[in-house]
Amino acid sequence: MRSIRPVQKVIDGFEILPGIGPKSAARLAYYMLNMPQERLERFAEALENLKKDTKFCELCFNVGEEQFCPVCQDANRDKTLVCVVENALDLIAIEKSEGNKGVYHVLGGSINPMAGIGPNDIRIPQLLARLRLGEVKEVVIATNPNLEGEATAMYIVEKIKEMGLSETVKVSRIGRGLATGADIEFADGQTLLRALEGRRVM
Amino acid sequence: MRSIRPVQKVIDGFEILPGIGPKSAARLAYYMLNMPQERLERFAEALENLKKDTKFCELCFNVGEEQFCPVCQDANRDKTLVCVVENALDLIAIEKSEGNKGVYHVLGGSINPMAGIGPNDIRIPQLLARLRLGEVKEVVIATNPNLEGEATAMYIVEKIKEMGLSETVKVSRIGRGLATGADIEFADGQTLLRALEGRRVM
Question: Which residues does the UniProt record annotate as the domain Toprim (chains A, B) (predicted)?
C-alpha cells in the first residue's frame, strides 16, 4: 500500500534529496499534513524562487543575488589572493573563521573519476582563465582533505606549473589542522583558522 | 555570515521539519541550487497542494482524497473490528503486514502529559462516539509500545469500561512481538503480523 497521490508526490520530492531515505521522506510528508497551509505555501514559494532569485557570481561562482557576489563586491578584500573551495557551503565555513582576507573561487565539486567527474566538469578551466589575467598573486587551495579534494589540488598545481605561472603565483594548500577525510563545512572556526594560517607552499 | 536571502528562505523551510538540523537544512538548500528548476517547481506544487488535495476520513481520520478513506470505502473490510493507531504511517505499516481485516481509527498522536497532550487533544472522543453507535464489536489497540502509547491504551480501556461497553465490545492490545520503545512504522511485516495475531484481551 503506497500513500495516496498528493502525499506520495511530496514523498517523491523529499526522496531525491541527499541523506533522505524513503522512510524519512514519508515521515516528513505526513508531518507536513499537520502544518499550517500558510507555512507550506511559504516553503513552496521559497523553492520555486530559489534559482530564479539567485545567480552564480561571474567571477568566483559563489551564490549571490547580483552579477558579482558579496565577497567579490567588497572593496576591502584582497583580489590578488584567491581561496579555491569545492562549494558555497565551504566558502561560508571559511568566512566564519575570518581566516581569508582574499576572495574565492568555487569549483562546484571535486575531481572524482569514480563518479565520472573530470577537471573540466568542475570550474577548473574558469580558475585557470582567471589566473591567466595576471592579477592573482596567491592561490590557497581549500578543497576537502580527502582523496577527491587532494586529487583536485594536485591537478590545479600541475596546471599552474604547465602554464608557466608558478613564478608569479604562489600556490599553497590549506594546513592539515583538519582531520583526514573530514568535511570543511562541519569544521569549527578555530580549526579552519589554524588550517588557513598553517598553509604550506606546494 | 548567513546565506543570502533566497537560500536562507529554503533553509528556514527545511529547518522546522523534524530530524532536520541547521547544517542538514543548509546542505539540502545548497544542493537544490544545482537541481533543475522543473524539479523544484514540481516539489513546490506538491507542497502547496498537499493539504488542498487531501481530506481526513470522516469516519477513521486516515488521510484520503474523499469523504471516506480507501479502507473505509472497501466493502470487504470487517467494519465491526477497529484497529486503533497513532497515525497514518502506522496504518500503512499494518496494512502492509496484512494482519488487520477490519478498519481503523487514527488518533493523530498519543497521550503525552509532558508535551501537554491530553485525551481530548487526540481523537479519543471521536473513537468513543464511534463505539457508542454499537456497530463495533472488537477494538484492537495498536498504539506504540512505549510510555505514551501504553498510557493511551490504558485510558481507552478505562473509558470503554466506564461507558459500560465492555460487555459488547472486546478490547485487545496488539501483541508484544514488538521491542519495547520501538516504532510501529519501522517494524517489519512479520513482526507486525505476529503482534496482531498475538493480541491479548485487556
Answer: 80-175
